[in-house]
Amino acid sequence: MLDLDLAKRFAWLLRADVRKGKKSSENLDEAFAQWWLVQGRAEYPYWSYLTDAQKLALFEPTGKMPVGKLEQVVPKIMQLVLSRRPDVIQKFSVEKNLNVQAVAGWFWVMGLIEHALTSAVALDQIRDLDRPVLVDPSLDPNPVLEAPSPTILMSIAWHLMGPELQAQMDLTKSESRYRYLCWFFAVARPLFKFEAIIANRWKSWLLQLLPVDAANPALGELPRFALMEVALMDAKKRPNLKTAAGLEQLRTWSVDVIKPNQKWAWLKEKITYQDNGLPVETKPIWQPQVKPADATAINLKKRPFGVNLFGFAQGELGLGEDLRMAVAVCKAAKIAYNIINIRPGQEIGQGDTALADELDKGPNKLIYPINIFCMPGFDVAARVYLKFGDKAFEHHYNIGWWPWELGVWPKAWQGAFELVDELWGCSQFSYEMYTRSTQKPVIAMPLSTSIERVKTYPRKHFGLPVKPCLFLYVFDFSSHLERKNPLAAIEAFQKAFSAKESVGLVLKVMNSKPDNPQWLAFVEKIKLDKRIHLISTTLERSEVLGLIQACDVYVSPHRAEGFGRTLTEAMLMGKPVVATNYSGNQFFMNPEISFPVDYELVPVKAGDYHFVENEDGAVWANPSITHMASQMRASMDFVKKPHAKEQIAQYAAGVFAPEHTALLLVERLAAVQKILAARNWL
């Protein structure tokens, strides 16, 4: 069942920082429950829903604090939040003395929003915050302006300002107190967006019409909030309210600025409350902030036949190419499709523009009844379910075209299968893995490859020598060095060829980490052999393909691959491939035109690869350095054979062409179409 409990489970699995050493297979603990309440809900706003009983419990009083001559209730949730915000405590502490009022001001003005707690604030709390903190009249015997006493909320928010502003906005003097009210409503409110806890009476006060100039009634009236804005303006930019043009300018502005989505629109948005004092939420905070589709599109049951393709459409990584090739397959199959672009993370480049035109066309809605997730199941949980919620899955037939590199699915992640109706194996290896791992239907649906975007470059473009036979390995540093195993390529290369032979090894690395000790050690090892060339600069897709084209042999000493895309790209260019004969590439490593490397299976221990625990019993391949070395020598000889290049390319074109997968896609979606028809979804 797709529900809040599943969302929490996914958060537990994804957040090792929250588990703090506990295994992903362990049960959620009390520390996680508190993290979810205070921080997790804010990070995953779709799932921030609280029941009325939970809301009331959060604001149970646990103490009181003085505000002037009054006492302010300290709710339970304030203590919980502050216990997890040492940054706030530090910010408002001077020589270990905590400014309690400033901390309380931060909680009500900023903390509620940051921790998704605004919807839990009841009418009683708002009334408590709205009590006036009376000012001693003897401190201001000759008041210049009629400025109301500050409320508790205003008084504690005053402590958020620096000493200079506090001096300018002394609350004991009417003139400076009015200046503070101007700042509170015209600056702090739009900046921190805490209007939900401002009592409704202040809206009437701010909308009240006042004479522009009491000495000159002919100038007419303007709402108080407009005059407050003018009071805060720089004198040089302030409209001249003694002229008709200046008055009309401000009057027009004051009408426009209270319209929906404008700065002062909140003055027209009255908050209503249930019988228990909790706000009636016309815009629930648990609705997704960014939707892959609007509510009407999601809930329609009858839609035209086609697929919504979820994936990293612009991501500069292999997973992004999975989505882009899924588009190519749909085109070849003449299946209607819609692209739902998912961002893979800030550390991944978003510069691939191959599908830019299609992303810009039309609304980004779930207009078809079939969802195909061309991304790892873990990312579907993290970047779709946790972000967009169950609405992205409801009333759709959901297919997981999930890449995964190991021969077992992590036991702790069994819940991910609840997100889909069936799985597609991108290789025979992954097909067999899913078949063993779930009772859901599993279909063999191999990925496709294209080199249409290849651009020819001379070797000097990459800083490579012209004459030697060059071996190439392209890998992503963020995909775990243990799995990609580049050191094995170096060892095999050095074992295969003496320093006198005209050969070289090119290592193209994505997402290198300059400060990572593992990366620094890797670079130092490369420096010891001048025949090894490291390319760690970012290259466009056409350049990466051009680099493969510029080299002679592709080598992959991987311990596990879900598919092996770079291997297939090299083969489409007629390049012999030397690779570990294990996992996704096994089904296309024809020994007549490629060079599979022997291996032994070794355990994958917890920490070796993401999401894997020891109880999963995962294994991967440890390639034979000796056999890899001999295969590298054999591949160099193969390159010299007549028609070798054509033979490899012809074989690859028959296996990896989008048209090949399109035939399988049409066949499977025809079966799915019958399921949809039976559900009356078409």
What is shown here, in short?
With 682 residues, this protein is an alpha/beta fold. 40% of the residues lie in helices and 13% in strands.
Q: Name the CATH class of the largest domain.
A: Alpha Beta
Radius of gyration: 32 Å
What percentage of residues falls in helices of 4 or more residues? 40-55%
Alpha-beta content class: alpha/beta
Task: Describe the overall structure.
With 682 residues, the chain is α/β, with parallel strands linked by helices. It folds into 5 domains: 1-49, no CATH class; 52-199, no CATH class; 201-269, no CATH class; 295-444, Rossmann fold (3-Layer(aba) Sandwich), CATH 3.40.50; 467-654, Glycogen Phosphorylase B (Rossmann fold, 3-Layer(aba) Sandwich). Helices cover 40% and strands 13% of the residues. The chain contains 27 helices and 20 strands. The strands form 6 sheets. A 6-stranded parallel beta sheet has the order 8-7-9-10-11-12. The protein has a 6-stranded parallel beta sheet with strand order 15-14-13-16-17-18, with helices on both faces. A hairpin with a 2-residue loop joins strand 1 and strand 2 (70-75). The protein is elongated, with a radius of gyration of 32 Å. The chain starts with a helix and ends with a helix. Mean pLDDT is 92; it is low at 284-299.
